[in-house]
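anyone seen this seq b4? input:
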Amino acid sequence: MKQSLRQHLLQTSTDTELKRWFDPLHLVYEEESKRVVVGFPHAFFAKWFESEVQDRFEAQLNMFLGNGYVVSYRDNGGDNARGGDRAEVVKRIDFPFGQEFTFDTFLINKKNYFPIASAREVAKQSASLFNPFIICGPGGSGKTHLIRSVANEISKKHEHSTLFLGSMDELHSMYTIRFKGDPFRARNHLFDYDFLFIDDFQKIREYPHFQQEVVNLFNHFYDNKKQMVIGCREKLVSCDFLDESLQSRLGWGLIVTLKEPDLEIRVGYIQRQCRLKRLTLSKEQVLTLAQHFSDFRYLQGVLLKLFAFRELVKKEMTQRDFEHILSNTEEKASDDLTPKKIMTVVSEHFNVNIKELTGTKRHQNIAQARQVAMYLCRQMLNTSYPALGRAFGGKDHSTVLYSVKKIEQLQDDDFELKQLLKTLKNKCRLT
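predicted toks r here
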């Protein structure tokens, strides 16, 4: 079994890497009990393995064996009965919340070291030290990946049926649709869970009357020392729509903020995906993708297109093919992007008030900021001219049309303006 598993691991690890961490392992495969016993040469190796390799090993072992297996870790080559250094550790190797969501596959740099280290600590479940654990960050920063990584890690020691994981929309739908608006039945159903994971928490803005019910859930899970993990696109301090009692409770836990993936992280992500999919790209093409797409979701999309081209067209991809695929894949505005968010970004850059953008003042700086904001709203949201006029304080649609056309013409001859518009677009996407 060990040699077959080694051949499988060679798909994602080099022979040199396997000699370092896989070959020293002592493996026993128990088919009837669906169990793999892993023995370490000594305790120091076991500790290193746990921090550096274990996530990757368990994910690959799951791919090799399938679901339903457990793995047991023992020191001293598995001979724990004759004086091993620690008790046997038994873990499931299923990934009920997505096999791709592990700490090992979360690319990390110095900017995001603290959030990852905190998430790992929460996943250990030695005590509810950080409850609730709240992960904030812009779209595409990896909140969902980290939330699901924590859930997958916890499910190795606890039945995954004891974890509730869903978005705020799904939580609200459970109350209104599944339990037909009966809050007592819905609440008691959720009280049976030992862990509560809520993603896209900022969408509670759309359900103001639901906030008190979330307070009820919070009180139960907190008082019973049951872990809560929450993902939110906005920083909690900026969520002025939250009820005071709910906002204060959220502050009882640990709040971490993920930074948007920088160029180094995006390059690393592309290189990893290319290895997994056996997709060959030049260094220049990898860098082009990393510079062109700031959001991981769009990177995933364009890499899927490149992979599909190789599989379906069955020919070597030329630079011309690469550029053609790239030109037909553009980042779109996120579902949460609104005229108000665009106005906020523009007003901060031009140092003007949003009220001035929607007002009637015609000072040069205000007028230019207003025209840029209208142009970006039109470009990024494809909002109609009449609707934009209403968003900007009841302006006539002809005024909006004039502003948009003016910025379109100016940027053709003004390189600085063109770069400014590009910068503001990126800021709007990451807000």
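The CA atoms of residues 279 and 307 lie 7 Å apart. Confidence is low (pLDDT under 50) at residues 77-85. kinda curious what u guys think
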